[in-house]
Structures are given as structure tokens and as C-alpha cells.
Amino acid sequence: MARFLLSLCFIFIFDKEVSGLKLSLTSNGPAVRGSNVTFTAVVTGFNGENLKFVYWDDAQPQHTAEFIESSNISHWVVEYHKDLYEAQNYTVKVNLMKSFYGIWYLVTTASTVFELTDSLNGNLVLNQNNLDRPNRFVAVNKPVHHYVKLPDNEIEFLKQNSSIIITYWFIDCMYVDQTSDYSLNYTYPDVMTDHYIDALVVANNQPLPPITTTTTTTTTTTTTTTTTTTTTTSTTTTTPKPTTSAPTTTTTAAKDNVTTSEPHSVVKRAASNKTLKKNTAIKDFICQNSSIVPIGETYTYGHYQQSISVREPISSLNISGLNWLQHGDLLKLQVKYTGSPPFDYCALYIPGQYNVTGNETCTMKTTTVSNMFPLVHYFSDSDQHTVVVVLENDIGRTVSRATINIYKALVHAQLSVIVVPVAFCLVAVTLVVFGIAYYQHRSRHTIEVADFDFGQQLNLDYKTFTERLRDSFRNAVNFTHRDDTEPLTSDTRYDYMT
Ligand SMILES: *[C@@H]1O[C@H](CO)[C@@H](O)[C@H](O)[C@H]1NC(C)=O
Ligand SMILES: *[C@@H]1O[C@H](CO)[C@@H](O)[C@H](O)[C@H]1NC(C)=O
Ligand SMILES: *[C@@H]1O[C@H](CO)[C@@H](O)[C@H](O)[C@H]1NC(C)=O
Ligand SMILES: *[C@@H]1O[C@H](CO)[C@@H](O)[C@H](O)[C@H]1NC(C)=O
Ligand SMILES: *[C@@H]1O[C@H](CO)[C@@H](O)[C@H](O)[C@H]1NC(C)=O
Ligand SMILES: *[C@@H]1O[C@H](CO)[C@@H](O)[C@H](O)[C@H]1NC(C)=O
Ligand SMILES: *[C@@H]1O[C@H](CO)[C@@H](O)[C@H](O)[C@H]1NC(C)=O
Ligand SMILES: *[C@@H]1O[C@H](CO)[C@@H](O)[C@H](O)[C@H]1NC(C)=O
Ligand SMILES: *[C@@H]1O[C@H](CO)[C@@H](O)[C@H](O)[C@H]1NC(C)=O
Ligand SMILES: *[C@@H]1O[C@H](CO)[C@@H](O)[C@H](O)[C@H]1NC(C)=O
Ligand SMILES: *[C@@H]1O[C@H](CO)[C@@H](O)[C@H](O)[C@H]1NC(C)=O
């Protein structure tokens, strides 16, 4: 017996080290009061043996539970009732135990702290073109789908314990709308501006209060909300398709009407004055920074804020410039584009043809506020290249390309091999024509000169023979000289025209 106890002690002391089991505990908190919190214990170094997980929290009244698992993971779901638990930090602990001949002994312990909150958690998400924005920038003149993304456990709590859930939407402290689906569609028309979005989700944690004008519908509500709590999950997932063959179709449909359309119309028709008052109180809460929540204790609310900036996406990108280059020339391109600055850009020089995939990335980026930039590059080889331009702004990115062809100087020489002889031939032909024309004109004028000379001879008798001879000779020279220009050019021109 003593030996058995001794060996037991031995196991107790050394098993922790020998077994190598490690334990970690996490929660899906923070969570709003009233929702379920799930704790997850994970064991590493698990060998397939049965394990016991013993949980407890430090809340009053306390929750405890223990599970025997044959796997390395254990979940504990705890419901923190709204009217029993305060909003504060709680600690949850778990003991991991192993069995030795039916006796459970402690291997290790883990703990976690989670926060129970008064208001709903989650966050406000901006969605454009069915994509959640990764930042606070949205594109101008395109609908922005704003929605409050709640944790699953809080959605479940609201579904089970509220008949009206309304989200009030404010933009720059101006009331915009109230919706029952946690979302708002809004288009911002003003580029380069900032706006402040406030969303207040309000859920009553009770059946719909009886309102005189809509007595009939409210009575059905009270019955359905209390009875069909278990079918809520299936109800909401199949909302677009009311025609289900399940036996709960009638209650489902009734609940559908209550949760979606009815609160809206009730609020709008019967209690519009009340809503107005409430809206101003909410507006004070949102805009005047008042800490007084304008709703009763029986309500659960969540306040979400987000500042957004409206920008213009990159809509057109043009690359212009010479894309046929002689080898050795610098590539000089102009890249022009539209959109809101600042821009980050880079260029990739890829040999050969390249088709853009759209996900090209750069390691080095240049930032500019200008709507254009030059690209200068030297290609050492003479081939085809593709210049890929990646341009980004706060809204998005664009990838564009230009194909560059580089021809060698040899191509130029080949060209002159053809051009030069042709040019010389033309010149030769011109000269021949020129020469013939010149010759013809001169012979014609020589006759004329002789005539003229003869007349002159008649008028000037007093000149000596040698004087007359000299004059006529000079005139002959002068006339041929003058003829050189005018008629010849017209001849030449004619030649060229034919
Ligand atoms: C649902 O709301 C009622 C009224 O506020 C509250 O008493 C009850 O505890 C809530 N249920 C849960 C699960 O918190
Ligand atoms: C838990 O066990 C599963 C298989 O049973 C294994 O795939 C997983 O890696 C284990 N996890 C840890 C943390 O050991
Ligand atoms: C819970 O703990 C966190 C982190 O330690 C702290 O920021 C927060 O204020 C605490 N909440 C309450 C209600 O004490
Ligand atoms: C919380 O968990 C319990 C037990 O799993 C379940 O019955 C209850 O409907 C859950 N409540 C909420 C609000 O999810
Ligand atoms: C709001 O936009 C989303 C996403 O574009 C769309 O699914 C939804 O139907 C729109 N809602 C309304 C009320 O127009
Ligand atoms: C919702 O209510 C309207 C009128 O109150 C009714 O005509 C309609 O059939 C109801 N829808 C469902 C899904 O029950
Ligand atoms: C709001 O209240 C005023 C007086 O307090 C009344 O004249 C008006 O008709 C009410 N409006 C509605 C929509 O009930
Ligand atoms: C709102 O209150 C917070 C803290 O109470 C303070 O830091 C902030 O400056 C206030 N804002 C305005 C607009 O009064
Ligand atoms: C790009 O070219 C098109 C067509 O020539 C022109 O309409 C557009 O304005 C140009 N865009 C920019 C940013 O220069
Ligand atoms: C680029 O795309 C065109 C047509 O889509 C295709 O003919 C060509 O082969 C592609 N080039 C490369 C390098 O992928
Ligand atoms: C880019 O897209 C191409 C084809 O679409 C794919 O093969 C490649 O893996 C992608 N690269 C990255 C970094 O996503």
C-alpha cells in the first residue's frame, strides 16, 4: 500500500514534466451582457488518452463545468444573463486532469480573462462593389454599403431576446435613416471630404410593447417570439425563401413579418412622434458627447463610429510617347491619369511581350501628388520590352502596360541603302533634264540676242567698229546670264511635276 502511494506521488510530481501536456485557454470575448461566451481549451502533446477539463469562472453566481474528452480540444459555453451579471472583466480557469487507475490527478492549469460589456461589440464595416474597404477611404459617387458586423454570439442573443432591432444612422451628426438590417446604403457625392459616421444599434430585450393602433399584430408577436426561439436560426437563414415545406412554416412566416417589416411600420406609423423625441435624444448622445444613453435598462445597444474620406478612384491611365526606339536611345514616356492624390507608382521593365495579370507588385514605390509622371529608361539590348506601370491611390490600383520595340542601327543602314541610290538616280535624272532644258533655252536666246544686236547697230552710228564689237559682245554675255534663272526654273518645276 505504501509503495502504491509512493508511486502515485511519483507520478503526480513527475508526470507534468514527463507527459509534456501543455494547456491553453481562450475565449471569444469581449461579449455583451446576455450573450453566450465560448471558452476553448487546447492541449498540445496529446497522446490519445482520456482527459478531464474542469472549468470555473469568478462570477457571482459562479459557473462550473467539467467534461471528459478523448480529444485535444474542449469547448465550454456559458450564458451570462443580462439581469444577473455586471459588465466587467471576469477570469475563467480550467484544470486539465489525467486518470491513473480511475483516480483523476491534476496535470496543468490555464486561465483567461474576458470582458463582459454593456454595449454590443463588433465593428462598422464599409463595403463598396461587394468588397469590404480595408481602410477608411471610399470612392465618390458609388453607393457605400455600411453595415455593423456583430460577433455571432451577440447576433444570436439579439435574435433570441429582442423583438425590435433598429440601427440609427447619422452622418456628420445629421440623422439619415433607421434600418432593421444593421446596414445603410449611402452615396457620397463630394470628393476630397471627410465624414463622420455614427451607427447606433438599439434592441429591446422584451416582446414588442402593446401599442393601441396595432393591437392585433402585437398580440401575435408576443406568442411567436416566446414559442419559436429554437427555430430562429432556420428562420433567418431562409428569409428570402418563405416557401418551406417544414411544419413550422406558419410560425416562421409570422415571425418573419414581425422581425423585419413590422417594427419599422409600427415605429413609423404609430409612434412617429415618440421616435422623433427619441431621435433627438439619440442625436444628443451621439453629437453632444453626452454619456447618458438615451435608452432604458431593458435595451441593449451598440454605438459604432467611423470617419471616412471620399476619394476618386484611378479611372484612366494613358501612357504616351515613342515606343519605337533606335538602339541606344533613351525611352521617354509620359504617364497621365485621373484620380485623387496621393499616388504611389512604380514601373517594371519586362523583356518581351507580357500580359498584365493585375496583381503585379513593386518593391520600390515613388509617391507623387501630380496627375502625371515621366518614365525614362535605357535598354541595353535591342529587343521587345514591356513597361508595366503600377499605380495606386487610397481607393485602389491600376496596372497598365506599353510595348517597346527597339530596332538596331543596322535597320537604319538598310534603309539608306535603298534611299541613297534612289535619291542619286533622281538627282541624275534631274541634272540631265536640267541640262537639256538649259541647252535648248540658250540656243533660242542666242538667236534673239543676234537680232537685238542688229537693231542696236542701226541706232548707234557714231560708235566705232571696235566699240560696237565690244558692246555687242558684252550684251551677248549679259543676255545669256539673265536667261539662266527664270525660264529654267519653270522648266525644272515642270519636270518634277511630271
Ligand atoms: C432577455 O431580456 C430580459 C429583459 O431584459 C432579461 O431579463 C433576460 O435575462 C434576457 N435574457 C438573456 C438570455 O440575457
Ligand atoms: C489536436 O489533434 C488533432 C488530431 O486529433 C491534430 O490534428 C491537431 O494538430 C492537434 N492539435 C494540437 C494543438 O495538438
Ligand atoms: C478589462 O481589462 C482590459 C484590459 O486589461 C481593460 O482595458 C478594461 O478596461 C477592463 N474592463 C473593465 C470593465 O474593467
Ligand atoms: C446559449 O447557449 C445555450 C446552451 O448551449 C443555449 O441554450 C442558448 O440558446 C444560447 N443562448 C444564446 C443567446 O446564444
Ligand atoms: C444595399 O447595398 C447592398 C450591397 O450593394 C445590397 O445588397 C442591398 O440590397 C442594398 N440595400 C438597399 C436597401 O438598397
Ligand atoms: C406579412 O404581413 C402581410 C400583411 O400584414 C401579409 O400579407 C403577408 O402575407 C405576411 N408575410 C408573411 C411572410 O407572412
Ligand atoms: C405629434 O404631436 C403633435 C403635438 O404634440 C401633433 O400635433 C401631431 O399630430 C403628432 N404627429 C403625429 C405624426 O402623431
Ligand atoms: C467627448 O468626450 C471624450 C471623453 O469623454 C473627449 O475626449 C472628447 O474630446 C469629447 N469630444 C467632444 C466633441 O466634446
Ligand atoms: C486618355 O486618353 C483618352 C483618349 O485619348 C482621353 O479621353 C483621356 O482624357 C485621357 N486621359 C488622361 C488622364 O489623359
Ligand atoms: C497575351 O494575350 C494574348 C491574347 O489574350 C495572347 O495571344 C498572347 O499569347 C499572350 N501573351 C503572353 C506573353 O502571354
Ligand atoms: C497573380 O496572378 C497570377 C494569375 O492570375 C497568378 O499566377 C499569380 O500567382 C498571382 N500572384 C500573386 C502574387 O498573387
TrEMBL record:
Keyword flag Disulfide bond: no
Segments of this protein annotated with the region Disordered: 211-264
Species annotation: Bicyclus anynana
Keywords: Membrane, Signal, Transmembrane, Transmembrane helix
Transmembrane segments: 415-439
Top-level lineage group: Eukaryota
Low complexity compositional bias, start-end: 212-255
Protein name listed in UniProt: Uncharacterized protein LOC112056508 isoform X1
GO cellular component: a single term: plasma membrane
Signal peptide interval: 1-20
